[in-house]
Amino acid sequence: MKIAVVGLGGTGSAALRFLACSGHNAIGYERFHIGHEHGSSHGESRIIRYTYPDVLFTQMMSDAYELWFELEKEAEEQLLVQCGGLYFGDNNDPNILATEHALIETNLPYERLNAEQVKEKHPAFHLYPNETALYQKDSGFLRATRCVEANIRLAKKYGAIVHENTKVSEIYTKNGKTFIQSSLGEEEYDRVIVTAGPWMSSLFKSLNLPLVPTRQQVVYLNINDHDEYFKANGTFPVWIDTTDNLYGFPSDGQIIGIKLAFHHRGEVIYDLDAERAPVDENYIQEIRCYAKKRFSNLGSNVTYGQTCVYTNTSNGDFIIDRATNQPNVFLVSGCSGHGFKFTVLLGKIISMMATDDNGYKRNLDRFKINELCKAIFIQNSLISTWTIIYSIRIILPYSPKYSFAFMIFQCTVTILNGSAMLMMLFYEDFGLCLLLVLSLFLSKSIFIAGPTLCPKTCSFLEWLLISMGCSGFFLSINLHWWSHFEDVINRPIYTLDYVVVCECLLLFGMIVSILQIIPWSKAITTTTQFYISLITIFSSVFLPQAYFFLNENPFIWLFNYILNKAHRVYLLLFWLIISLFSLLIVNLHLKFTKNLNIKHEKTIIRKYFHFLAIIVYTSGILFDTNLLIMCSVAFIVLLLLLECMKIRNIAPLGNLIRNAWNMYEDEKDTGSMMVSHLFLIIGLSYPVWLADDNRRLAQLSGIISVGVGDSIASIVGSKLGTHKWPGTKRTLEGSLAGLFAQFIFIASMWYFGT
Length: 754
Hints:
The chain is an alpha+beta fold. It contains 22 helices and 20 strands. 52% of the residues lie in helices and 15% in strands. Strands 6-7-5-15-16-17-14-18 form an 8-stranded mixed β-sheet. A 6-stranded mixed β-sheet has the order 9-2-1-13-20-19, with helices on one face. A 3-stranded antiparallel β-sheet has the order 3-8-4, with helices on one face. Helix 1 (10-21) packs parallel to helix 5 and helix 1 (10-21) crosses helix 8 (343-354).
């Protein structure tokens, strides 16, 4: 067959070699020269390892190792340096535990080392007492550029044609025939394999491939002393730090110094043709700080710096599939910064798929394009369909005239729900399907029962958000729980310790709150009921569940977590001091208005706490988002419990809380519950929970809108506002002031480089 390969990096060059070796008429297209530095397949070293927290990846690496050894033998040069590998992090890091599980499942040898053992065996490393390392002797690094060049050299030897510096502008199918339009003209092919990395999205715009290209940076630091500590002879293995998300290599014999880099995503690349900036000075400084605490024998001089591109999918899985609208076009992409070690295998797999060879033994369904979007589609379809039907029932008054039409609509919604559920059963795990159904029933129950049990507390949309949030929370914590039992959930689900601690804490708060609604025996007072439920749920739900996930006492874990990094102690002290200072300011304000016989304005009092929240959340986002997330969840649980004490008049704090809360309530707090303070914290927290540290503006969006904009708008509107928006109490002056304040806040963040 006449088969084209577009993109001759790691995967494309391997595919071209396999096709040519099998006797096919193989033609390769490369936008730049072979071994160029614009993509992801260049440089002196790429880590190769078995150590993955995913059994399938570990199994696939067994296949990849064999193919790398074959390539070395065929090319008659060393391309793989096996110097061993350290995979280290916190003792209870889920990635460490899952990786160890995967190594055991695949019967691969490894050693589990503590900090002292690592120091003895690899003297350049400094691990902390609470850290563990997995050592795997087969790990090492691949000489990336030379691997690509070897593949191309052998492909040409077997008869392949390579077009370098040739841009492919379009790949299309017409009348069952597939064509490539390039700078050389139009050419027809039987099959086309595309491994174009970050350029995939522009070639297949109609597929909306879930790929995000990011700019990544690597730095080489000089060795101050003890050069022998950093040799690639097993003394200094390749390494990955799962806590700080860095990785590094021994001295590779080609570039002076030691290579280190952060693995987390860099800035998104919007223009792939633009000239790429050199390594950032701030990035270099972060690398120096890390090296100082881990490798005392390294210097601070940068001997070399380089950038490359990650082509990321949302979950780190690859794309290995046919193009959905072109059956003779095959795609491989989304290596997400960890794929070079797989490229020889991916090239083999995609060449087999293109030639109708189904001989690869492993199930790769999860790498299909549709799989990446399926879970989102199913969940959205299930949630949105019932939301529509209940929205219509609540908003529109019931009329017998439209009862038949409404019944037809209900049937349609039920069919849609059933179809989505069948898709879940067909494609996914039964356990996952069951959990999704239960979470949706919970969401429906809260949405229906909430307005009845707590009238005038929340609006329709607020109840909708609360019910969907509870549904998502229920699904999340159950996934983390049941994924430990493979008979229930087939795919392991891993997360960080602080996340499951937050989930356990929130579950505790929600159960205690719900128990206050349920009537107990009349012989038991409400105060006794509250404290019994508080102690019982804490000891029977929170403690055992947190211990199960952490494998240690949660209080000891929390103590170690805070003391592990000094800035966390300082941050907590800072938050405590400004909180006490805010309470002092409020008390002085109240005394001042009382002495002057001035009626204090609740809007002003509330905004003191808005500004306190702005300071807390801004400092938390800038210095430690994980700590901020835990504290925000703990504070939400505390507010829930205080609200229960207020409503049930729990001694000795019930009346005190009611009197304190009355000073801050507004027009939204007319129901049995006061929710404005809860919505404030949730509004500030939600962006922090969702966005990662690479998206600072997204994390700050709650502060900008709810904290800064709303606070300034309320103060200016209540003091200076005269022109009201139609049908509302809000003023034009307040809205403009809020908009201007948000702009100033964003400009300040930008000016100070945050």
